[in-house]
Every structure is written in C-alpha cells, then in structure tokens.
Model the fold of this input.
Amino acid sequence: MADSKPRYEFRTFAQEFGLVETRMRAWSPVDKIRESSEIYIVSRANNENNTKIRDGLMDIKVFIQEQKGLEQWNPRLKAEFPLKAATIKKEVFPAFGVPMPEFTRDTYTLPQFIEEVVRPHPDLTAVHVFKRRFGFTINDCLAEIAELLINGAAIKTAAVESTDLEAILEVKRRLGLTDYENVNYLVAIKRIIGMLPAPKDWTR
Done:
C-alpha cells in the first residue's frame, strides 16, 4: 500500500471473517505476505492522526474527510530515528494534541523516545502491535486480511484501500462487508486497551 496520494480506506475488525476471507482469497491470489512489529502512539486527545513506528521510522497519517462511510487519509511524515528534539516538537507532538513535555536531549533514539517522552506522559500510550498481513488486489483496490496481536490480544482486520471511492464500495459489496463497521486502527486500539468504550459485539 505504497501509493502516496490520499487514499480512501474501509477497515473493520473481527475475531474471524468467514466468507469474507474465503471470497477475498478466491477472487485474487495473495500478492504479499508481510509481518511487522509496530508501536502505535495513541493519544487521549486525538483520533485524527495515525502515529506509528515501524522499522525505526516515525510514520504519521492525517485524517482528511469521510465520504460514503469511507475515511480518507494522507501521509504527513516519515522520519527515521534517532529524531532531533526540534523535529519531535515541530512535526510529531502537534499530531497528539496534548501538552508538550520538557525535552532533556537534543536527539532521541527510539527507546529513549518511548521511555522518556511517551510513557511518562499522562495522555499518551505506546501500544505494541504485531501484524501478519495477506495482501490482495481486487477491482484495482488494495485489500488485505491481517492477523493481529494488540498488546497480546488476538484479533483480525480486513481492509480495502484505493484513491477510487466507488471502486472500494464495489469491493465491499462483493466481499460481503456492507454490514461491517468502518473502524480505523486508532479507534480499534483504543477500544481494545480501554481508552474508548467499545460497543457490544463490535468485533462480532
């Protein structure tokens, strides 16, 4: 999912996807299987900036708008650790929407950023997410089924992404995802760790 243009996304979470996964695998061969260990930095004050760390890179995506039940996101920052304190102040902390702490270093490694900046902050939480992602191409959209461990809690996610909104809606219909709730990673993680209330049976 490397297209840098703003993309629309439908994402949902469940313990199992049954026929949805069967249809996805039947209509497209697996393009890629990828595994990654990531750290999401979630903020009590913000659901509109997706901030995660993967492969030593700080990656921030910004929510743009919602149309027809889909969310549009745009890449905002990719920066490699170690990060200068000036970069964290200017580019990273504004995405959290919380008070900025004192910075005691000019440059932060990833462990220093997590242990000295994130963990002591009362409004920020570092959440460890392991992903095993199976990628597909359906109707020129990027689709995936992923097996997740979110702070050790096992769950699955299914997603469809594209710059073409109508193409995603067609894939949703074909896969049988029409009745599933669109839930982005930030909201799902907050529900799982108890930072947001979770609707009853939201993961079916």
